[in-house]
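Possible regression after last week's pipeline update?

I re-ran a chain I had predicted before the update to compare outputs. Posting the input and the new output here so someone can diff against the archived version. Not blocking, just want to make sure nothing changed silently.
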Amino acid sequence: MATAGPSIAIANLETRLRVGIWDHERVPQLVRVNLLIAYAALPCSSCLDYRPILEWITGEWPRQPHTPLLETRLRELMGFVFGFDGRIARLDVSLSKPEAFPQARGVGVRMALTRGQYAAAGIGLPDRSLAG
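New output (post-update):
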């Protein structure tokens, strides 16, 4: 579904998260984040300020306790970004663990949803405790 308005692309943003099923993954490990954020805003005087999103990904999010599944982290990130600004209409998010398998550049998950699909999927509104 196309969205009238700009998109923000964030590529290979690095953060460190506690995520994975193995014992050695209980400590923070490198996770690469890719986001495509489509939002409704014209003119550019009302453009989306993405800086708080980047700061949350690299500052607040790494403080969350361990979780075994990267899919959980994906849902957390989508919840935070959709909850950040009501103009965000669609997200395409991928998370990758580049050190998970030496023969691959990364192993990860990806999901692309509109705000309506996100709500209909029952993933829910963002957990405000994640906002710091």
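Follow-up from reviewer: compared with the archived run. The domain at 7-121 is CATH 3.30.1130.10 (GTP Cyclohydrolase I, domain 2). Marking as no regression found.
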